[in-house]
Amino acid sequence: MITFSRRVIAVCALASALTACGASAGPAARPPAPAPSPAVPSAPPTLAAGPAGLTPVFEHGPRAAGKVVSLTFDADMTADQGPRAAAGEHFDHPRLIGTLRALKVPATVFMTGRWAEEYPDQARAIGRDPLFEVANHSYSHYAFTADCYGLPTVPKERMRADVERAYQAFRAVGVPDPMPYFRFPGGCYDRRALEALTPAGVTAVQWDVVGGDAFATDADAVARQVLDGVRPGSVVVLHCTRSAAPTTEEAVRSIVPELRRQGYRFVKVSELIGAANGRG
After folding, report:
1. For residue 267, pLDDT beyond 70
2. Is the CB of residue 91 less than 8 Å from the CB of residue 117?
3. Full DSSP string of the chain
4. What is the pLDDT of residue 138?
């Protein structure tokens, strides 16, 4: 009898202990969740090669993709203009860049490598500002065809090297992610030039609205020309050089609020290209 009672007590004690452990232990521990993988930035959108594998040429975005427009600015300086800069000529335009920032206007700056070397701090600041993107306007700003506004000409066998030298200059001054877009100096190109740049893997970016600000003295005329020409998807070409385009900043202060009043949204060239190839 005593032995049976002791067994009952022991079994009850064991049951109580097991119940207590179960209550205090809680659910079984799970292994920690793996850390999320860092986001991998996608490559900038580009266009597929043109006929016969030629460098593709982009002029404007889709007309039916809404009222968007891209303001682009050429930061021009030729390879042989160093003495003029040393003598005090200004090929930069910090006030224009400041106005774009104040107005919160995204823009694409097509920069020559020589300009970046002359103004490394400005080139780096533009390149690191998420409001802007830096694209290639050649190193030398020499023409890629004959008879292009009196510019010296780059031989075909040197064209690719001139473009790649500009990218080297951007990296040297600290521009982190220059875009794979190229604008021909003067907008002049032909089949030979497109063939020469095919191995560089760039998309050539032209425009459908000429701002007419080069050497202009009437800011209102520049603004009117832009406003009269803009359509959905337009690419506007203007300049970022005080000496050659002194009225551009004043014109932009008229262009931006008027286009916004008309319902336009400002975007970088990359967004228009993304929309053109279905990535927008």
Report:
1. yes
2. no
3. -HHHHHHHHHHHHHHHHHHHHHHHH-SPP-PPPPPPPPPPPPPPP-PPP-GGGPPPEE----TTS-SEEEEEEEE---TT-HHHHHTT-----HHHHHHHHHHT--EEEEE-HHHHHHSHHHHHHHHH-TTEEEEE--SS--BSSSSSTT--B--HHHHHHHHHHHHHHHHHHT-----SEE--GGG---HHHHHHHGGGTPEEE--SEE---TT---HHHHHHHHHHH--TTEEEEEE--TTT-TTHHHHHHHHHHHHHHTT-EE--HHHHHHHHTT--
4. 98
Query: Does pLDDT of 85 surpass 50?
Result: yes
Give the Cα separation of 234 and 266 in Å (integer): 10
Range with top average pLDDT, 3-12, 39-48, 158-167: 158-167
Structure token digits, residue 99: 């106005």
Regarding pTM above 0.90, the answer is no
d(CA 168, CA 175): 10
- Give whole-number Cα distances, 213 to 36, 119, 268, in Å: 49, 22, 20
Write the pLDDT tens digit of every residue in 221-252.
999 999 999 999 999 999 999 999 999 999 99
pLDDT digits (tens, 9 = 90+) for 188-210: 999 999 999 999 999 999 999 99
pLDDT digits (tens, 9 = 90+) for 89-117: 999 999 999 999 999 999 999 999 999 99
- Measure the CA–CA gap between 104 and 6, rounded to whole angstroms: 85
CB 147 within 8 A of CB 136: no
